[in-house]
Amino acid sequence: MFRKWLEIIFDHKISLRERMFRLVTGISMVALVFILVLGRSGVNLFILPLSLAYIYIAAKISIKKECINAGAAAIVVLLLLLYPVVFFTGGGLYGGVPEWFVLCFIYISITLEGRRKGVFFLLCIVETVICYYLAYHYPDLVMPNTMAQAYFDSARSVILVGFLTSILLLFQNYLYEEENKLTKSQKKEIEELNQAENHFFSSMSHEIRTPINTIIGLNEMILRGDISDEVAENARNIQGASKMLLTLINDILDLSKIKSGKMEIVNASYETGELFSEIVNMIWIKAREKGLEFRLQVDPSMPSMLCGDEVRIKQVLINLLNNAVKYTKEGSVTLSVRCERVGVNRVRVWYSVEDTGQGVKKENIPYIFDAFKRVDEKKNRHIEGTGLGLSIVKQLVELMGGEISVNSVYMNGSTFLVTLEQDIISERELGTFTLTSRMKVHEGEQYRHSFEAPGAHVLVVDDNEMNLMVVRKLLSDTKVQIDTASSGAECLRLTQYQHYDCILMDHLMPEMDGIECLHALHSQPGGLCQDVPVIALTANAGSDNQQIYRKEGFSGYLPKPISGALLEAAVLSILPKELVALSETASQSEIGKDVLIFEQAKRISLMVTTDSVCDLPESLKREFGISICPYYICTEQGRFLDESELMADELLAHMAEGRKGVSQPPDVQDYERFFAQKLTEAQNVIHITMAKHVSDGYQNALEAAKSFENVTVIDSGHLSSSMGLSVLYAAHMAENHASRDEIVKTVKKLRRYISSAFIIDSTHMMCKSGQISKRVQVMCDALLLHPVIVLRKSRMAVSSMEMGSFYHVIKGYVRKKLANPRGIDRRILFITYAGMDEESLQYIQELVRQYCPFERVYLQKASSAIASNCGPGSFGLLFMRRNEASISYSEGYR
To answer: Is residue 891 very low, low, confident or very high in pLDDT (cuts 50, 70, 90)?
Structure first.
């Protein structure tokens, strides 16, 4: 019996809950036997067999009928009825019964679910309290125990309860480890399956693209020739079918990448006019073939250039338009585009695709974006497609941070609305964009080569002979001299003796792949093509692969299958200009279209900017490319730009005459204009401001940054040159290609390591600017007090008051600030001052050298905005305390 019970408990085929129920119920039966025996009444021994039979029957029925919750509740009811009886007959508090109340709580916690668990748990608590209350106030109800019996029963109960509870915990641990192993095993299997699936899709894409490349390339050569109308029509049908097959492959590959989290959105600048032109050229013919009217409505105020993932936007719109054409038998398909400004340099664009087709039933709309799901399958069985298009569209839109919605009335058409936000690259408006002005007439269109370069020498490397033949034929009219190599080793052999102006190289080749060959080419001893541009011409498509090729050192990337025009444009873009003669009939606007050439970006990846109150030398600003947003100085004569229109010395002389001069941070619009201008020079901007509780500059910059997704504002926690130290460190990190998040994290960490303290000679300016009251200013003058101002948690505070002549105070201040030389990063020090003479500055430098000599000391005149608050004769020793980051920080500008 016991062996069978164990086999059931450890049977993996039984659910975890049933196994735990069996175990806890068995333990409860053992407990019941023991506590009923503890009772001194003969009634208990009569109740025992009935109770055990009741529990056994309740457990068996509940397991058989799969209603464990009900069976457990029935058993708990019995336990709640028996425990008070045994409590009073077993000696109450001075017996072994109280310990068994714990098992009742455990049983309820493990076996019951839902509201029953809470109800019975509460009943168990109430019952325990009542039993203890009655035993205390009415001791006659409790059957007395001798002291020896009480101790003996209690000891046995503690040991047995502890033993049974330990069994429960050990079994729970066993189940946990068992399930954990199973979960890990399943997770490993899923990961291996995903890897195999991704590898399969990637391989399938590459292997299928290679023959399609041959089909499309050779078919293009047929279309270039002098052929009959019937042959031309057949060739165009082949071209269309090949591109349709390529679209299906791309859909499957994209779905695989999205599922595995490897799909990347690559934002770059693109021309909106070209985007719509290409969409028109692909869709209007399909619509016309079905007898549909294709309408195009584009907002004339649309910017001519935006920043976004052009490839994915095009894929989304073409998928939606293809879908509209497929499911519309008569009527029209309309693409409408409108936009609105959401910031100084940002627009929200709505792309609407509307058709007069059969529409979607209301109950099917929630499933319209599901993969491999085709709504109204019976009615649409004749329509070609994988059912992937709309699923990929939705996921791509979400990856780009946009939204997609559908409105549809069955049998009355559908409207898909995509919303995307994008950065503005060019403010020039697109203007009137009509369908007729953008359509190309494909019939009778004659091929014209874009250039000739008979003096150019090009090497094509590919292990597939058909691919080599296709490239050679597509470039034949350009008169370029072409050599071919079928392996990486042959490429290296040819480049040892022959210089080439351009190399087109496949990636996936046996023995030595294209990346290995490129690296060998760059380091080839005596090689003649170490610096020659190499374009990856491969069927290994995808935005993630583009990044790999760029990182590995390729000069460009072209996915197969490739058209003759794109191939020519790629070669033309990197051939030496003196070797090229452009064709007079070639349209210059078409050259370079859709070709991804890895040129040095006009905009840097990340720029660090700050405010004019950073008090950094011009040499350091230029060295690290730090851009400055100026503060304002407001006087009776007007408002002036800090440092460019009004210098600190002029301001101090102006204020010495009793006139007003107040600093003012840039407002939100100033910051918006500044950020918009800087985003034409950089992809991302990090702006570091003065301590947020000292100036409104931080809040204004933060508000302005809401208009730009790629502007980050950081509170330096300091001011003047101590703020400049944060700026220098951030600029150094940006120069060394640190990410935005890394820079933000490090600058925030550096706040507590920067020493920011200024000693004030006269408090008159601080009083005028509202920093201190008139009463404090009078007291400081009377007692010769000089406040030392520090920054704590972005707030300005007075750390101490120094008494005596200013020269005496200077000595004490320098000694106190440099008292612990071991904790100071000695590589750089700013002595930032306002209105001090040369003699005073030399005296300060001498004191610094005595206490803690620094490698580099900058005598930095404070900006007008800082000087207007601290007044003449004020200065600060601004440096960084030693920390892990300070070493690399200082290395950047040694």
So the answer is: very low
- Distance CA(412)–CA(298), nearest Å, equals 24
Beta-bridge partners for 640: 633
Q: How far apart are the first and last CA of the chain?
A: 83
For residue 598, give the DSSP letter. -
Angstrom distance (rounded) from CA 711 to CA 721:
23
If one counts every other C-beta atom within 10 angstroms of the C-beta of residue 561, the result is: 24
Q: For residue 90, how far is the Cα from the chain centroid? A: 66
Q: Please, are residues 320 and 282 in contact by the beta-carbon 8 Å criterion? A: no
- Amino acid letter for position 204: M
Comparison of pLDDT for 729 and 195, the residue scoring more? 729
Angle in degrees, CA 50, 51, 53, rounded to 5: 65
821, two tokens: 């030389």
Q: Copy the structure tokens of residue 630.
A: 């100026």
Structure tokens at 531: 């610096």
Q: Which H/E stretch holds residue 688? A: strand 682-689
In which band, very low, low, confident or very high, does the pLDDT at 443 lie, cut at 50, 70 and 90?
Answer: very low
CB neighbourhood size of 144 (10 A)? 13
Q: At what angle do helices 465-474 and 147-224 cross, to 10 degrees?
A: 50
Q: What mean pLDDT, rounded, does the chain reach?
A: 77
Highest mean pLDDT among 320-334, 630-644, 680-694, 880-894: 320-334
**Which helix H or strand E contains 278, and what residues bound it?**
helix 272-289
What local confidence, expressed as pLDDT, does residue 200 receive? 67
> Which are the contacts of 476, defined by CB distance < 8 A and separation ≥ 6?
none
Whether residue 561 is preceded by a cis peptide bond, meaning omega within 30 degrees of 0, is: yes
Query: Does residue 412 or residue 439 have the better pLDDT?
Result: 412
Least reliable range by pLDDT among 224-238, 523-537, 735-749, 752-766: 224-238
Cα–Cα nearest to 655, from 871, 874, 875, 833 = 871
Rg (C-alpha) for the chain, rounded Å, is 40
Residues 423, 710: contact at Cβ < 8 Å? yes
**Cβ atoms within 10 A of the Cβ of 629, count?**
25
The pLDDT tens digits of the residues spanning 63-102 come to 777 787 787 788 778 778 877 877 787 777 777 677 777 7
d(CA 836, CA 515): 62
C-alpha to C-alpha distance for 462 and 206, rounded to whole angstroms: 13
Tokens at residue 611, please?
């405010």
Residue 243: strand, helix, or coil: helix
Amino acid identity, position 325 = V
Beta bridge partners of 341: 347
b/e map 818-854, b = 16+ CB within 10 Å? beeeeebbbbbbbbbbbbbeeebeebbbebbeeebeb
Residues 753-780: tens digit of each pLDDT? 888 888 887 776 666 666 666 676 677 7
Six-digit token pair at 183?
């979960």
CA distance linking residue 763 with residue 345, whole number of Å:
44
The count of other CB atoms within 10 Å of the CB of residue 133 is 10
Contact between residue 201 and residue 252 where contact means Cβ atoms under 8 Å apart: yes
Q: pTM of whole model > 0.70?
A: no
Torsion angle of C-alpha atoms 646, 649, 655, 661, degrees rounded to 10 = 30
Q: What is the mean pLDDT of residues 385-407?
A: 78
Instruction: Look up residue 517 and give its amino acid.
Output: C
**Roughly what angle, to the nearest 10 degrees, separates helices 16-38 and 147-224?**
180
Pairing of strands 874-880, 754-755: antiparallel
Name residue 426's amino acid: S
Which band of pLDDT confidence, cut at 50, 70 and 90, is reported for residue 151?
Answer: confident
CB atoms within 10 A of CB 93: 16
